[in-house]
Amino acid sequence: MTEAFLGLGSNLGDRAATLRAAITALDAAPGVRVTRTSSLYETPPWGPVPQGPYLNACIGVETILSPRALLELGLAIERDHGRERAIRWGPRTLDIDLLLYGSDHVDEDGLIVPHPRMAERAFVLVPLSEIAPELEIGGRPIPQLLEGLDASEIVRIGPIPA
After folding, report:
1. Do residues 105 and 113 make contact, with C-beta atoms less than 8 angstroms apart?
2. What kind and span of H or E run contains 90?
C-alpha cells in the first residue's frame, strides 16, 4: 500500500455534496481506502477566468493502484460528476488532482507527481497542512511554503457533510 494525497475542488452546483460524493466514490473503488479528510475551505478562483468561489479539500488515501491508475480513477469520477474540460482554469463541477504518491516522482505524459504547482497554491496547501502537516514538498515543510503565499481569502467552512 502506498499513501497518496489528492486535492479536490468544485465551484459549480452543490459543491459540498459533489466533494462528498467524490470522496465516497474514491473510498469505494477497489484498491483505494480514504484515510484522512480535511475540512472544506472556500477559496477564491485561480487563474484568469472570471468565476465563483471554490470549495476545496484534500484527502489522504492508501492504495495499491499505480499513480497512473489513481489519476485515471480521479478523471473517471470527475466525468461521472459532469466535469467538462472546455476552458483551462475555468469553472468546474469537480476537479481531482493527484498531489503526492508516497515519495515517488513521476514525470510521464499527462502525469507529474508531485503535482508541479501545488507549492504555489494556498488553496491546496491549507487543507493539506490540516491533514498532513508533517509533509515536505521539494524539501520544504508545508507551513514554511505557506509563509510565502497569500491565504487571507481562504475560509475554513467546516467538516465535509456526511
Report:
1. yes
2. none
Q: Is the dihedral of CA 126, 105, 134, 17 positive or negative?
A: positive
**38 three-class SS:** coil
Q: Establish how many alpha carbons lie within 13 A of residue 45's alpha carbon, considering only the half-sphere containing its beta carbon.
A: 15
Condensed to tens digits (0 to 9), the pLDDT of residues 37-66 reads 999 999 998 777 778 899 999 999 999 999
45 close to 121: Cβ distance less than 8 angstroms: no
Q: Which residues are tagged catalytic?
A: 83, 92, 95, 97
- Which tens digits make up the pLDDT trace of 63-90? 999 999 999 999 999 988 776 666 666 6
Q: How far apart are CA 7 and CA 103, in angstroms?
A: 17
Q: Does residue 50 have a cis peptide bond before it, meaning omega lies within 30 degrees of 0? A: no
Element (H, E) at 4: strand 2-10
User: Cα dihedral angle (40, 70, 135, 34), rounded to 10 degrees?
Assistant: 50
